[in-house]
Amino acid sequence: MRIKLQDIIDKVSKYHYYVYDTNKTKMVSSHHNDMNSINMNKLSDLSGIKDGRIIILVKLKRIKKKEYELEKFSPLKLLGGILYGEVSTYKIDNNKAIKQSTKLKNKVYFPKKYIQKNWKDSKWLMKDLKKIAAAYIDDKILQQLFAINTINSL
């Protein structure tokens, strides 16, 4: 079965953001959209989000075919799959989103076999993206230099 990654991204959308309540330590809402970028400092984007909460943005990206082919024959592996979720966080303070510094490892990969096994509909991917956001905020993503974080390991 040939997987078209762009079709997957188009179906579930590229940007997914989750609002995390630090006081209650839980996800309070999630959204996804098809915009090219999210302007976190627009008040319309932040309406209804209280101060002290964290917005976790998970951006779906695909590995370029050439990069993936080179990785296959490399003795040092740096990639964990053909698709990945890249995480960024923003803290809400006085109705403004302040981008927080990213951790050393902020990518979680979806291996090709995992996608082939699960790709029947988009429900599994939506659950996995929320799982990535929660793992990132709870420091469950490995931060060692040569660690490769895959969705299987979360």
Order of helices and strands: HEEHEHEEEHH
Global geometry: globular
Number of domains: 1
* Biggest sheet details: 6 strands, antiparallel
Distance between the termini: 26 Å
Output the number of helix runs.
5
Radius of gyration: 16 Å
- The stretches of 5 or more residues where confidence is low (pLDDT under 50) are none
> Residue share in helices?
25-40%
In round numbers, the mean pLDDT is 83
Strand proportion = 25-35%
Oligomeric grouping of the chains: single chain
How many β strands by DSSP?
6
Question: Structural class, judged by helices and strands?
Answer: alpha+beta
Which properties best describe this structure?
154 residues; six-stranded antiparallel β-sheet; 5 helices; 6 strands
Can you lay out the helices and strands and say which pair or pack?
Layout: H1 5-12, E1 15-21, E2 26-33, H2 43-46, E3 54-62, H3 65-72, E4 83-93, E5 96-99, E6 107-110, H4 112-118, H5 123-137
Antiparallel strand pairs: 1-2, 1-3, 3-4, 4-5, 4-6
In brief, what are we looking at here?
The protein has about 150 residues and is α+β, with helices and mostly antiparallel strands.
Describe the structure.
The structure is a single chain. The chain is α+β, with helices and mostly antiparallel strands. It has one domain (5-153). The protein has helices at residues 5-12, 43-46, 65-72, 112-118, 123-137; strands spanning 15-21, 26-33, 54-62, 83-93, 96-99, 107-110. Strands 1, 2, 3, 4, 5 and 6 form a six-stranded antiparallel sheet that branches. The longest helix is centred in the last third of the chain and has 15 residues, at 123-137. It is globular and about 50 Å long. The mean pLDDT is 83.
